[in-house]
Structure formats: C-alpha cells, structure tokens
Design goal:
- With about 170 residues, this protein is an alpha+beta fold.
- Helices cover about 25% and strands about 30% of the residues.
- It has 2 domains: about 55 residues, no CATH class; about 90 residues, Double Stranded RNA Binding Domain.
- The chain has a 3-stranded antiparallel β-sheet, covered by helices on one side. The protein has a 3-stranded antiparallel β-sheet with strand order 4-5-8, with helices on one face.
- It is globular and about 50 Å long.
Length: about 170
C-alpha cells in the first residue's frame, strides 16, 4: 500500500548546500509547515517569494498569493538551535536528539552531527580497533552532518519525515 507522503528531497538538498542561516530556507520550511505561522492548513502552498517585509506564499501554479507573512512571523529555523529542536518536538513527538561537534582529526573539522531517535530506539555498538559498527535493535533514527547544529538537526528531521519515520 502506497502512502501519500510529502517529498522532502528538495528541502534536504537545499539544507545540505546551506553555509549558515538562511531566511529563504526558513520561509520554505514555514511553507511546508504553515501551522508554524499560526495557520491551520494551506492546501495550495507550494512556493514562496521573499519580499522586503517577509515572504509571500503562492499557489501551485504561481498565479496568486495564498498568504503573506511578516519576517517576524517566520521562525529562524536555520539560525536557531532552539527553533530547529522545537520543530523536531512538534513533528516527531517523543523523539530524542543528540548533537556533537566533530573533532579536528575528522574529515569535516568544525562541522556538527545530529542524531534523532524514536522513543523506542535501542542500538548496540561494537568496536574492533578503529572500526565501530552500530546495530539497531529496535526503533528508528535519522542522522545528518552540517556546518551548524541547527542545519544538522533540520536535515535529520526531514530525512526522518521523508522516510515516514514519524
């Protein structure tokens, strides 16, 4: 049986390319989740265009505005770890999170890794010399790496949502 899950591949790719906070990405996330703007549902919302005061959201064919917001209405998901973790709590209730900064000996020094885990997640780690393997015993998780902790959390969130892991 196929489910009609949203495709988050575009937002994941954009977040992976981001080099830091990005208000256009914040607006794109708000378009995906209009309830973050205090709006129950916007069926037609599929795109946005930044404006001088915030963002204007357009319907699927781009012909007309379905809503507009001030910049203050859009939460700073890409800039704020708190805002990104709040979104995790809203979209994946009960999931836990872990964030770590990679050390200078790793390939992407200064970058961050985020892991989100379902409430029933349990894993076993095995190590032999410099090789470590993790076996997932139960539950689900999603991981991601990025230049900032907020971006890493958002990428992991959208990977979990895209995989239907809510």
């Amino acid at each position: 049986m196929m489910t009609d899950r949203p495709d988050y591949s575009d937002i994941i790719a954009r977040l992976e390319r981001a080099s830091g906070a990005d208000r256009e990405l914040d607006a794109a996330i708000a378009c995906l989740f209009p309830e973050t703007l205090g709006i129950a549902h916007v069926e037609e919302c599929s795109g946005f265009r930044p404006s001088s005061t915030g963002a204007i959201y357009y319907n699927r064919d781009g012909s007309g505005a379905v809503m507009s917001t001030s910049g203050a209405d859009i939460r700073p998901f890409t800039a704020s770890l708190d805002a990104s973790l709040d979104l995790v709590g809203e979209k994946l209730p009960g999931w836990t999170w872990m964030i770590r900064q990679r050390d200078c000996h790793e390939a992407a020094a200064g970058a961050f890794t985020a892991r989100l885990a379902s409430p029933d997640f349990e894993a076993e780690e095995w190590a032999s010399g410099s090789i470590t393997k993790t076996d997932v015993l139960s539950g689900r998780d999603a991981t991601a790496g990025a230049i900032t902790p907020a971006l890493a959390v958002l990428i992991a969130l959208f990977r979990a949502l895209e995989d239907g892991r809510e």
